[in-house]
Amino acid sequence: MSVLLELQSVTKTFSIGGFFDRSKLQAVKGATFALDDTRPEIFTIVGESGSGKTTIARMILGNETPTTGTIRFMGEDVSQLRSRRRRLAFMARVQPIFQNPFEAFNPLTTLDYYLYSTARRFLGVRGAAADEALDKALNHVGLSLAEVKGRYSHELSGGQLQRIAVARALIPGPKLIVADEPVSMVDASLRMSIVNLFRTLRDDLGVSIIYITHDLATAYYISDRVIIMHKGDVIEAGEARAVLDNPQQAYSLALKNAVLPPDPTAARLALERRRSAVSAV
Ligand SMILES: Nc1ncnc2c1ncn2[C@@H]1O[C@H](COP(=O)(O)OP(=O)(O)OP(=O)(O)O)[C@@H](O)[C@H]1O
Q: Which residues belong to any copy of the ABC transporter domain (predicted)?
């Protein structure tokens, strides 16, 4: 396997409290997993609030340094990217998408400004070449430059803004997108269209997605693999259907029972079984 991203026994400990009551909080207690470069996938990190998901995302993006353990992206230790050039090359390859699209875009700045800045920073293009790069990225999310140019964030819905955030992330040509709760601020009716977009990016562009969520319904629907986190520990890991259909830990079972909708296929089969049992009597 050619490794895209590898976390080895990654921990993160924060010092919390004031001068007199200082204590340690272990936000991540030893995460180990790898993504294969040749097999783009949607790798989902599930867990309730405070389980350590965002801390893992921040470490993968290089915004936080692991206390112990290593994170390698395409063989390079993410915490050792010292020069500006190497850091920029890494950022082009690993792009974030954040939870709140309304916060990501300043209401007084046109949305295309963010897209042009990204094109200038990572691709070094302006003018017609930038227009082309923007239009291409926007087309991947079902929009066009003509639709977006000159518009402000308050003119669009959360779902449309999140699409633009995805388009912005696509401009540098990333290999990996780290999406931290990307649909939790989006209207429930639009959530599936955003997560479906991740599938398209995986299949059409070969981009891997780290999808961070506390929403098991969308996790079940789109993930290839999943890890479940609880108080900083990875308590389950594996193929998404296997893990979510048959959780081994009491905590994951409780999580599943609390939120997973009934599987329509299983429900139909159960109904058919019941019907044939009745007609056999
Ligand atoms: N910079 C920090 N300093 C101190 N403690 C922190 C810091 N960042 C996170 N924590 C703590 O680490 C733990 C894990 O937080 P984290 O944000 O990673 O969880 P999460 O699963 O992403 O939760 P949420 O969905 O609420 O964002 C929490 O107890 C949080 O308060």
A: 5-256
